[in-house]
Amino acid sequence: MSDAAVTAAVTRVPFDPQSMQRSLFQALLDAKAEFGGDTPALVDGDERTLTYDQILRASFALGSALKSGTRKGDCVGVMLPTGAAAALTVFALSAFGRVPTMLNFTSGAAGLKSALATAQVRRIVTARRLVEVAKLEDTIAALADSGGDFEIVYLEDVRKALSLGDKLTAVAGTLAPRLVAARPDPSRPAVILFTSGTEGEPKGVALSHANILANVAQVRAHIDLYPGDIVFNPLPVFHCFGLTVGTILPLVAGIRVVCHPTPLQPREIVRRIHQHGATILLSTDTFVTQYARAGESGDLDTLRLAVCGAERLRDETRALVRRKYGIHLLEGYGVTEAAPVVAANQVEANHPGTVGRLMAGMEARVEPVAGIPGAGELWIKGPNVMLGYIKPDAPGKIVPPDDGWYNTGDVVAIDADGFIAIRGRLKRFAKIGGETVSLAVVENVAAALWPDNAHAAVAVPDGRKGEQIVLLTDAAEARRMDLIAWAQNHGVSELAVPRQVLIVAAIPVLATGKTDYVAVQKMAGAAAENS
What we know:
Elements: H1 3-6, H2 24-35, E1 40-43, E2 49-51, H3 52-66, E3 75-78, H4 84-95, E4 99-102, H5 108-119, E5 123-126, H6 128-133, H7 137-145, E6 151-154, H8 155-160, H9 164-175, H10 177-180, E7 189-194, E8 204-208, H11 209-222, E9 230-233, H12 240-253, E10 256-259, H13 266-276, E11 280-283, H14 285-294, E12 305-308, H15 315-325, E13 328-334, E14 341-344, E15 357-358, E16 363-368, E17 376-381, E18 388-390, E19 398-399, E20 406-414, E21 420-425, E22 429-432, E23 435-438, H16 439-449, E24 455-462, E25 466-473, H17 480-489, E26 500-503, H18 517-530
Parallel strand pairs: 1-10, 3-4, 3-5, 5-6, 9-10, 9-11, 11-12, 12-13, 25-26
Antiparallel strand pairs: 1-2, 7-8, 8-18, 13-14, 14-15, 16-17, 17-20, 18-19, 20-21, 22-23, 24-25
């Protein structure tokens, strides 16, 4: 990226709590007024470019059509890939006071049924094109045959059936938006998302308008954004990172966003990044590694930084991307329950091995954990922390965090300068012979030996030592004796050497790029029983 572009006026905005006292749709209206209705704002996967005026007009028309048969405050399912259709549907529902409920279409019929019941969804908005491309015919059939009290609405059908009233609403909304759009209380639910389910059944997370816009304001205060920046977002909108940072933030901040419907197309993504001159990539360690390997030298030269979350950013990934492209990789940390960004590194303060410092307006405390010295369980509080959980055993009921404090379940160490190092999830520690062992350390040892492969460690019951560690890896040459030798040579406790090494074709991952530890646990358990 040119020096002229880097030294352009910075849009880093001091955190202002007042900026979150509005609805998501009002934030979009304000962005249109600030940046101009004819400003290109979003590029879809089919290369169609939408301006702010076009987004608003389409949102009013679609929202008018979708509101029929629902009431303000109702949860409406959104099952769409990242792109214009998803963004328009979210803003269309928000414009008329409905609550977009983001559904993970990769979770299968059982996962979707659970989400629908938990959030009490009566209508699902999807697209025939998605069903065809993602091969969801069996999933849709299973939902239809389940006898659930909900309907499936296809956007293609809605567009064809737009009434004169819908079209007039679009005109009126464009001319006098404040007379047409709903005005929900910023403290009321804006969206419902679901936890990733890496370790159990997903729970609904209710985020208010204020929660999401607070996080948008926090990120804008934390990382430099330039007027000419172009964000490339291939992350799913049912994941909070893809929705808040990848979709809502660019539109609110007046920065063009290029959407891609799936993160699983490395060569196509590299081509589109180059084509559009994208300067910021949103990704995960797993995906950015694939993109770096898929591209040739020069293909990603327009990128000045990639912001990575959802999983640990490995040293090997940093080295590959720096050597091949000279790109800054900024590791951050987020949870759906915090809308999602909690902490992030910055270009001027980038400390590898940490996830950076806390977002503005947040508080953190670290509670000691027995057997884990120098670290503890992270609790957070702030304007971006969720309204509460909606649990499967209490559908529709939002249970707020106690006194606003949310227990992340992650074990961290925070240094004197405020940089946060993630040691692992509390559930990701094994008890072996009375000692506490981090499963993340086990994975790190494997990654040091076989950096080009994927690894996942879990604990399974052991009658003699309480638990034993099983390592799953797609490295065909992986051997336990190599792990023992590496641990001895680097001062790592041999307790961190897995009892079993299971070589698999691929490590199961979720659509967000995170390791699917539920699936890994089942594979490891089966292997342990047969050993």
